[in-house]
Amino acid sequence: MRTRGVRLAGMLLLLALFGGSAVGCAQSPAPEPQAVRTPAVNSESAQQRMVEVVKDATESLGGDWKVRSGPDYAEACRLPDGDTGAKWTYFLTRAQTGDVSADSAKVEARWKALGMSIEHLGTKTEPTVIGRGGDRTDSISFSIAPGLYAIQSVSLCFPGDADQL
Amino acid sequence: MVDIEYDAGDASALSSALRTADGVLRGQAGKRSGAVSTGLQDFSGAYAKRFQEAAVIEAEDRGKLAGVLADFADDIDAVSRQAVEERQRISDHDAWKQREAQRNAFVQASGGGVAGVAVPLWELVTDREPSTTPITPKPLTAAFHARQRPHSAGGDGSGKSSADPTHLRTFVSTTRSADSDADTELQRLQTAWSSFKASCSWAVVDGQSALSGFRQYLQHNESDCTWSEHVASAFEKAGGAGALPDMVLAVATNGRTPPVLDALFAEGLTPAEVAKRWAALGLSKADAPALRALPQSVLEKLGNLEGVAYWARDTANRSVLGLRIDQVQSQLATAQTGSAWSGQYGTPFQQQIASLEKELKALLNIEATLGKKGEGARSLVSLTDDVPPLAAVSIGDLDTADNVTWAVPGMNTTTADMSSWTNAAQNIYNQQIVAAGEGERAVISWIGYETPGETTVLGMDKAEAGAEKLAASVHGLDAVRADGMPTTNIVAHSYGTTTAGVALSRSDIHVDRFVALASAGLPDAVDSADDLHAGEVYAGQARNVLFDEGGKGDEWATVGRSFSHGHHVDPSKPGFGATTFGANGGTAADGTTTNPVLHHDPLNADGGGYLDQNTETLYNVGAATTGRKDKLTEFDPTPPTVRDQWLLGVRDPDGGE
Which chain B positions have a beta carbon within 8 Å of A69's beta carbon? Predict the structure, then answer.
């Protein structure tokens, strides 16, 4: 009985909070701050770090890489102090596949060495490797599609307004 | 002595002015024909013919007018001569009467003697009485009416004309200079004519329309100039020389839409009927600059008309966007500096400023979105006159894409967020390449409906109104691409799934794939994927958490579904029949885990929204919308947090997570 009463009180409290809060389904640029996990960067250094990691990956894979967007495509993000900042994104493709397993392993090893945690998605023949964290980028991925290698990267968040960049 | 009223000096001044005007008009022949030749350089098509015809009429009228003026001068001179004769006759008669009187007096004085009678008798024979009949002056007639010039291209307006605006402007300046000279002569004539009429009442004026006709002639000349300026301006707006559709020139020169455009804008047409009429105009993407010459009111209609090719809608909407930004900035500047500004908030004036600022913010955000350089060309395929406007930005070419995706947003998304929602659409577009390789695709960042706010998100009204608009947009693509319909997808988020759910319940709509992310609830009537007119239905739902637990999962979708009036259906539930995919990270075969979606948002500042880059859900959206079902990650429902389990009564608070 006591537990049920507490539960009911808890639900009522949440509903009361719900009644007075703004429901947010739209994208929110700056929710509550999370723990600081990225070093402080500015727009130039954030882009430079991202480009360096991408360049390292593309050079290690070789071939002709085509820039599809970025590295100066900006989006909003949250700074360690909770303020809204900006991040760069970078998207490149290579119109040629190779030894998929070896190439995936190659980029994965390089990203691990940079302190990133690794995630895997996709199929055996068309895998995606995601590297997240570290002090170079927010995230970076290497994907294989029919006739295509792709790298997508997101820079660290830096102070700035994505709509003005 | 009786005299006639006829001032020979005024008459002479009039005939002199008439001859001078005649001479000036005749002397302009070379100048005017040279201007016409210049105007006709590089001018072709129906409008060039009208220009030439107008020039021929002008030249004929000018010659005729000059002739009438010269004849008038001759007639006045003739009347002047008659006046001299009449005066002479009167004078002669008066003199004769005096002589006659003297003779009579002499006869009476002579008492009837022969000598006294002989002289008068002799004079009676030789000094005959002059004419007693007054001379009738030649009636003065000077009739001239300037003819109308043809300015309409005729036909249905479906032809094209080319012109060099520089040459037309040269024609205008030369013509106006000549008209100014002619007008000087006309004013002199009018002064002289007024004097003549006041001082020469003896003259009989049978009809004089030459001077009003002269005025008419000059008015028609000015009308030619204005018309030519409008034509030149239309070509200038279109970027200079080249061919322009006659319908564009018709609107530019008449201010009225030609029959072909009226037919296009007719009430009650289906998008398919519009598409047929649009195709009949024979316009291609090369005509895009020409459309910019149309007035804003026409562009506003064209830019939002379903069934019109998307390149034309983009052209029209971009023009309107630029015009509206200028207009709103100007209105705002006026309002902010106006004397009516009292600094009082909440006044109608302040509300007007707030409304203008809101509109401007959205318009500038749309402009910035269009200018952002991402993969795939961007088009503004709709822009309404709402405040803030509703708009849709396509990434990729809707006229040619073989895979089209509508990205339908949820609550509180307005065009002030166009750049942000388009970033989400861009992520989908890029991910489609990553999922399935190169292809001709388009993703529409569709803020084409008024999304709900906090007070309306739990109801159905916004979804039902939005569904009408979404259905219209789908029908528009069906119509434009009838000859080669692309694969179609709707990717909707949150309340966008409610809106899309209503739209896809209609029997007159069909898409190949529907992807529901973080559904705020599909309409209650849609309790199965089979109820939706979509070939395949997908659902992605992150762990449901309560609204204060953003960062641990989707904090709002449950609220939307649970507390709504009419949209409780969760498409991620097994019984619904959708293909569900992973959103909570999960573990790969090699033991590595993937980051889960941590928020209800499509894009979150920490990168943990449903459509953020390098997330599992974006990965799955890319796969689902390109037919790569084999790449989808498995749905991995994660139980609520420990606190929520306790609150919801499904778990003991001490049980751990």
Answer: 373-375, 426, 430
